[in-house]
Design a protein that fits this description.
globular; 8 helices; five-stranded mixed sheet; binds aspartic acid; 29% helix; 269 residues; single chain; Glutamine Phosphoribosylpyrophosphate, subunit 1, domain 1; alpha+beta
Length: 269
């Protein structure tokens, strides 16, 4: 809101808002201090989309704490949408970003504990993954969005989640609205959730109805009660909603008159 109120663009608000979470070492699922993979390497996914429908993304980026800013650079300074791995890191360094160790003493300790006790992949429903997803609309009705995450804790090296994939974790159509996702990225990719939500809003569904349709698509998985997926949607009129398959998803709403946390409704009651 500070960025928007200072007259800067809605895309600036998305990038700067997500940077706050990426820079916070206490947030253990995004940027600095994010969960490492099974070998102890922190690898980050992010994507961003603007009001003109242009997108940028990074996948499997290491040692750079602000993947959302690199995603924005990809959008604005290259002819590509998605850069991954070493190439994404090289591009970040060429653009003046610093190489840093993102594994904090605390996340290192937890990873070492996990290595001793739990060699298998985690049960995805447990609290071992999260994403900052941010959607914003400015006073002129322009919409943008972004997502950033370290992904599934102790994932297989090389794993890329939905947060790099435009249409899965994020989609923006300035004439309609925007949607973003958090939760088990594999399921979000397989159901192309955020694109689905925006297309449903285009057909006239409300943000809540559109999120419910995307969550119900997950029921094609007969084990959909053991993982979690949650969506946020915002339409051109500034109406918004969140919806989850599981209980205990909440999201934040900030306007000039309001700053609050909302508990989302959910499917599996
Ligand atoms: N969607 C993220 C991923 O699968 C994790 C999460 O949001 O919980 O990488």
């Amino acid at each position: 809101m500070e960025v928007l109120n200072s007259g800067r663009s809605v895309l600036d608000a998305i990038e700067k808002g997500i940077n706050v979470v990426e820079n916070d070492p206490k947030v253990d699922s995004v940027g600095l201090g994010g969960y490492p993979d099974a070998e102890g390497n922190v690898t980050l996914d992010a994507c961003i989309m603007d009001s003109n429908g242009n997108a940028g993304a990074v996948a499997y980026l290491s040692n750079i704490k602000n993947p959302i800013s690199i995603a924005r650079h990809v959008k604005e300074k290259t002819a590509h949408v998605l850069l991954a791995g070493k190439g994404a890191q090289k591009f970040a360094l060429q653009n003046g970003f610093k190489k840093e160790n993102l594994l904090t003493p605390e996340t290192k300790k937890r990873w070492e504990r996990w290595k001793q006790t739990n060699k298998e992949m985690h049960d995805p429903v447990k609290d071992n993954h999260d994403t900052i997803g941010l959607l914003a609309i400015d006073k002129n009705g322009n919409i943008a969005g972004g997502v950033s995450t370290s992904g599934w804790a102790y994932k297989m090296p090389g794993r890329v989640g939905d947060s790099s994939i435009i249409g899965a974790s994020l989609f923006v159509d300035n004439n309609v609205g925007a949607a973003c996702a958090t939760g088990l990225g594999e399921k979000v990719i397989e159901t192309v959730g955020s694109f689905l939500i925006v297309e449903k809003m285009r057909e006239g569904y409300s943000p809540l109805e559109a999120c419910k349709i995307a969550i119900k698509r997950l029921s094609k998985y007969n084990n959909s009660n053991i993982f979690q997926v949650s969506y946020l949607a915002l339409n051109k009129d500034g109406e918004y909603a969140g919806f989850s398959n599981q209980k205990e998803f909440s999201y934040s709403i900030v306007t000039n008159n309001l700053s609050t946390i909302v508990k989302s409704d959910y499917l599996l009651k």
